Amino acid sequence: MSSKPTHTAFVTQEIDVAGEKKTLWHRVGSVWPHKSGPGMTMMIIPGVAISGKIVIMPVKDDEPPINF
Known about the structure:
The chain is an all-beta fold. Helices cover 0% and strands 53% of the residues. The protein has strands spanning 7-17, 20-33, 40-44, 53-58. A four-stranded antiparallel beta sheet has the order 3-2-1-4, with no helix packed on it. The chain is elongated. The two termini are 13 Å apart. Keywords: Plasmid.
């Protein structure tokens, strides 16, 4: 893995707020591309239990890193 992740992993949750659907985004990990070919590695923050839809998005410039 390279030293910096290229993507962030989120679990999304649909909720109803006053009759309007909203999506909550919970940051749960980081994603790195494989050096030796196709594929990626995802590291989940220790102690986080996840279920549901995982969304992978490019890292934003102002996003603080996750320390594993």
